[in-house]
Amino acid sequence: MNDPDAAAPGSGHEPGHGAAFEWQRDLPVGNTLHLPAAARYALVLHQTAPSLFEHKAIADWLTDRQTLVVGGGSNLVFVTPAIQQAVRVDAAGWWIDREGEQFVDIAVEAGKGLDDLVRETARRAWFGLEALAEIPGSVGAAPVQNVGAYGTEIGEHVRWVEAFDRDEARIVRLTARECRFGYRQSRFKREPGRWLILRVGLRLHRQAPDHWPETRYPGVAEALADWSCRSGQPITSIAPDAFAELITAIRRSKLPDWRQGLPGSVGSFFQNPVISIDMADRLTSRWSDMPRFPTPGADGQVKLSAGWLIEQCGWKGYRDDGVGVSPNHALVLMHYGGADGQAFWSLACRIRESVDRTFGIALDPEPRIVE
Ligand SMILES: Cc1cc2nc3c(=O)[nH]c(=O)nc-3n(C[C@H](O)[C@H](O)[C@H](O)COP(=O)(O)OP(=O)(O)OC[C@H]3O[C@@H](n4cnc5c(N)ncnc54)[C@H](O)[C@@H]3O)c2cc1C
Hints:
By secondary structure, the chain is α+β, with helices and mostly antiparallel strands. The chain folds into three domains: about 5-90, Uridine Diphospho-n-acetylenolpyruvylglucosamine Reductase, domain 2, CATH 3.30.43.10; about 90-255, Uridine Diphospho-n-acetylenolpyruvylglucosamine Reductase, domain 3, CATH 3.30.465.10; about 275-370, UDP-N-acetylenolpyruvoylglucosamine reductase, C-terminal domain (Uridine Diphospho-n-acetylenolpyruvylglucosamine Reductase, domain 1, Alpha-Beta Complex), CATH 3.90.78.10. The protein contains ten helices and 20 strands. It starts with a helix and ends with a strand. Bound molecules: flavin-adenine dinucleotide. Flavin-adenine dinucleotide binds near residues 72, 147 and 195.
């Protein structure tokens, strides 16, 4: 482990700026599950200028694989409360890189809240991010699992990601193709511990996309019809900020509010499994109402609903010893208070085992498990 006291003083400055970085001891690591967690030593970056990474102490800290990258903690499960060393990017600026008649290219620092960015860009009537309203977490973490909701994934709008390559100890700019985005997947998730994302380049649009607005998802068509009735305008004329508000209302009716305290969650706990059509057919012959969805780009495979599988095993609404499963959504595991990471993780393992026993399907957790 690197010794931050030996490596650097409490904070550092880049010429012409405030504190560019800080070393901290016993930094509490906030997380939306509200499980106890603290980093014994942590580096907090207030800037993302490339020159910062020429500091030997910073480069050493980042190339040490023990250093855990933390963002807003909305996709981290602290089974253990004690983290030896961590890094967090707090820099949260964004600016316009390039503009055209049809598009706006922006660059965003990793510490910016994704939901804040969605609202600020939607207010400017730029199309692209509005369906991601109300998703917690930082812009820096968004490419990691290619965050998505209501038919939009961040990866569709990414032009590049600038990151510190912890294997090579240098900053690189990856194109969207090099990020290898997939459903809740990316190169950053497939290569855990390798990347610290510093800035993300996004392309947004001045005009509505084809088939605007998206109506395929439960609740959205009804909410749009209601909006149209109230405003007296056709649904196709809804602006990005009004659409973001509508998505916010739908999400708040289903998910616990991550801005409040307990109960805590990380949103969907398991990924929807993708299985072969043959296997899905075998399951359908027994469970005829089992939902299945096409998976574009994955021939011969279908996606199932992890929430449905968990519900069939009787877990929806389960609650014991401070942990449980949401009564509204079987995919959302909850911490009601007073439990520790071990208890929460043990519930997740029991759910996984029972789905495996019943359906022969091994569910993968969506969040990163810190053990
Ligand atoms: C109520 C609720 C609803 C949610 N809804 C959705 C949803 O609809 N769709 C969806 O996709 N997700 C959803 N999520 C999950 C979560 O919001 C996203 O995964 C989010 O991107 C996590 O951001 P974070 O900053 O909190 O990351 P953290 O939880 O801090 O970290 C998550 C992962 O990213 C890594 N990481 C963090 N910052 C960086 C960085 N700068 N560089 C490299 N790696 C980094 C961490 O090491 C970790 O592996 C939801 C979560 C909650 C609590």
